[in-house]
Design goal:
- This protein is an alpha/beta fold and 187 residues long.
- The protein has one domain (2-186): Hexapeptide repeat proteins (UDP N-Acetylglucosamine Acyltransferase, domain 1, 3 Solenoid).
- It contains three helices and 19 strands.
- It has helices at 2-21, 28-38, 174-186, and strands at residues 44-45, 50-51, 56-58, 63-65, 70-71, 76-78, 83-85, 90-91, 96-98, 100-102, 114-116, 119-121, 126-127, 132-133, 138-139, 144-145, 150-151, 159-162, 167-171.
- Strands 2-5-8-13-16-18-19 form a seven-stranded mixed beta sheet.
- A hairpin with a 4-residue loop joins β18 and β19 (167-171).
- α1 packs antiparallel against α2 (28-38).
- It is globular and about 40 Å long.
- The termini are far apart.
């Protein structure tokens, strides 16, 4: 019964809103309108959410989004195991974030089952286009995940990561790290 309630309260209305607003152009006003209309159907959502078109947000009752977040078009987020997107995060087009993963059992993926683990994207991070983030990953604050990367392990704060699988490429400089720390203290 609870599953039916969650579908009627969150999934169906959000899916309808996304389909209804897909015709809008990709500009600041449309992004903000989509965010305002989707906000009531996301478990916890801060202010100033901007959403691109053609999104797939699965299980939004397990999705937490902070303030001033931008999620670009064609992004796919599965929050079955819970997804937390902190303040000031930018998610570029065609990103896949999944808190659920299939597992092998008796040499079968189809009937092997799945595991769900929480995904956290830290304050001020930028997930570049065409990237994927696997279940159980915690992206530290102030991180950049390069385009076309696949992040399968958690990262510490203030790192640039990239590749398949993603590896840490460079630490963010002290001045940039200090900027993030000051900004976070102000909020």
């Amino acid at each position: 019964m609870k599953n039916i309630y969650l579908q009627i309260r969150y999934n169906l209305p959000l899916h309808f809103i996304i389909i209804l607003l897909n015709w809008l152009p990709e500009n600041r006003i449309s992004l903000k309108v989509r965010g305002m209309c989707a906000k009531p159907f996301i478990k916890n959502c801060g202010k100033n959410l901007h959403l691109g078109g053609n999104l797939t947000l699965l299980n939004p009752y397990n999705l937490t989004i902070g303030n001033n977040v931008y999620i670009a078009k064609n992004t796919w987020i599965n929050a079955m195991g819970f997804v937390e997107i902190e303040d000031e995060v930018v998610i570029s087009p065609n990103v896949v974030i999944s808190s659920l993963q299939h597992v092998f059992k008796d040499k079968s993926v189809r009937f092997g089952g799945s595991i769900a683990k929480k995904v956290v994207i830290g304050y001020g991070s930028w997930i570049a286009a065409n990237s994927t983030i696997k279940c159980g990953v915690i992206v530290g604050k102030g991180n950049v995940l390069a385009s076309n990367s696949s992040l399968i392990k958690s990262t510490p704060d203030f790192m640039l990561s990239g590749g398949v699988p993603a590896k840490i490429i460079q630490e963010v400089t002290d001045g940039e790290a200090e900027f993030f720390s000051r900004k976070e203290q102000v909020k």
